[in-house]
From TrEMBL:
Keywords: Ligase. The keyword Lyase does not apply. One of its GO terms (molecular function) is ligase activity. Residues 194-232 form the DUF4444 domain. Pfam families: BPL_LplA_LipB_2, DUF4444. This is Biotin-(Acetyl-CoA carboxylase) ligase. It comes from Sulfitobacter undariae. The keyword Ligase applies.
Length: 234
């Protein structure tokens, strides 16, 4: 497999079959430099993770999750046929032509939303091929190559994801969250439908200014912050 090439200040590390997200968290805990990209690409799956070093409180830094989702859509949009639709679930799930095909996840050194974390990691998992030839068994799930993207090289897709996420990051730093809010909202999966996120169920009616989820229940409208999606580092 060709070694991926990333923009300056990014470095790469092959996970050699282990979980890139867990390895990136371990590297971050050991005080690696920001910009480390850990990856593992097999016949069936692309997995990767990026280490960030935020300079803002966790409540704002958690925007890296939707930001990397927009980066993924832009990356695949540049490589895939134009008829392939990419949408993003607020909880991190990725959808191709309406089918679930992977997910993003987030971990950080802190859980306190008001604290600036020492590090933050965003992980990406993308199914390249379905686990079974009998896709009728899992009609809600799909994979990259099952959706007309057979010419997409996973290494080039990984490179493009990092590049496009960097573009989104620079815009977010310079201009604030308005552009990200607008771009992510245009890709939202499940808007105006019932969803279950972070143990809560309701109608997904939109985002607040910090990209928190607005969830309408029979009795109230609840705000679920992005920090509710944090997972414990492995």
């Amino acid at each position: 497999m060709t070694q991926p090439s990333f923009p300056p200040l990014f470095t790469s590390l092959s996970a050699n079959g282990s979980d890139p997200f867990a390895l990136a968290c371990a590297q971050a805990q050991a005080v690696c430099d920001a910009g480390l990209v850990v990856y593992d690409i097999t016949h069936a799956q692309l997995r990767a993770a990026i280490v960030f070093a935020p300079e803002v409180p966790l409540r704002d830094a958690a925007s890296m999750l939707p930001l990397c989702g927009v980066g993924f859509q832009n990356a695949l949009g540049a490589l895939a046929p134009p008829e392939v639709g990419v949408h993003l679930g607020w909880g991190g799930r990725l959808y191709l032509n309406g089918g679930h095909c992977g997910a993003l996840q987030i971990a950080a050194s802190e859980q306190d939303p008001d604290t600036i974390p020492d590090w933050l990691v965003i992980g990406l998992t993308l199914d390249l091929w379905p686990p079974s030839d009998d896709t009728g068994l899992t009609p809600d799930d799909t994979a990259l190559y099952a959706e007309g993207c057979g010419e997409v090289d996973p290494v080039l897709l990984l490179e493009a994801w990092v590049r496009h996420s960097l573009v989104e990051l620079n815009s977010w730093v310079d201009d604030g969250p308005a552009r990200l809010h607008r771009n992510w909202s245009g890709l939202a999966h499940g808007l105006d439908a019932e969803i279950t996120v972070a143990g809560q169920t309701g109608i997904f009616i939109g985002l607040d200014e910090s990209l928190g989820l607005l969830l309408k229940t029979p009795t109230e409208t609840r705000l679920i912050p992005l920090t509710a999606l944090l997972t414990e580092p492995s």
